[in-house]
Amino acid sequence: MSIRGEVMALDIPPLGRGELDEDLREHFALCEEKLGFVPNVLAAHSFSSEKLRVFRGLYDELMLADSGLSKLEREMIAVVVSSANRCLYCLVAHGAAVRKLSGDPLLGEALAMNYREAEIAPRQRAMLDFAWKATARPQETGAEDRARLREAGFSERDIWDIANVTGFFNFSNRVAMAAGMTPNPQYHDLAREPAGHGTANGRKPA
């Protein structure tokens, strides 16, 4: 683990902002505008415009593109996978995203500690059961698990998306931990004030 304030433990100098390709410079500027900082996971990849673009492209496709899963649900998967793997960077970063998208400052922590105790809809619990099992015991994941997702109301394409988001964060967790990636300190303060009294899906849990 690298010390506070560093991007990661590996000493790989990033390209200067002016050395990055124009589209990536614009993306960093957008991050600073929206968040107030550039996430360290992007900074860590910025020693190469090509590698940064590939990572960002896959992330954006899985987490931001159209899907039967809401953006919040995809962030919930990210937190639960990261909890199973004990990845500090992704727990902090995506826990903040869950707080922001849900308006619930407790939800990110509940998912990180034990998602089974979180106040979420049955559909979301089935989704997170699948993500946890596919992370902790992937060799046991099979037809019965996919059937439970169908029973919870997920389409075949939704199940594909759940599997891909789960797989991506298993990959990302392992890289972050192996490289000693440090979460930006600003994440800890994001979205701490409650925006309302609803739950993750905007209604009381069943």
What labels describe this entry?
Single alpha-helices involved in coiled-coils or other helix-helix interfaces; disordered C terminus; 0% strand; mainly alpha; 9 helices; AhpD-like; 206 residues; 2 domains
Describe what this molecule looks like in 3D.
The chain has 206 residues and is mainly alpha-helical. The chain has nine helices and no strands. The protein folds into two domains: 17-63, Single alpha-helices involved in coiled-coils or other helix-helix interfaces (Up-down Bundle), CATH 1.20.5; 71-189, AhpD-like, CATH 1.20.1290.10.
Low confidence ranges:
197-206
Domains, number: 2
CATH homologous superfamily grouping of the largest domain: AhpD-like
CATH architecture of the largest domain: Up-down Bundle
Determine the mean pLDDT: 92
CATH hierarchy, class of the largest domain = Mainly Alpha
Strand content: under 5%
Would you count the extended β strands for me? 0
Quote the distance from N terminus to C terminus.
40 Å
Radius of gyration, rounded?
17 Å
Going by helix content, strand content and strand pairing, the class is: mainly alpha
Shape descriptor: globular
* Helix run count: 9
Helix share bin: 55-70%
Strand and helix order: HHHHHHHHH
Give me the CATH fold name of the largest domain.
AhpD-like
Biggest β-sheet: count, sense, barrel? Answer: none
Q: How would you summarize the topology of this molecule?
A:
Layout: H1 22-34, H2 40-45, H3 49-63, H4 71-85, H5 88-102, H6 107-114, H7 122-136, H8 143-151, H9 156-179
Helix pairs in contact: 4-5, 4-6, 4-7, 4-9, 5-6, 7-8, 7-9
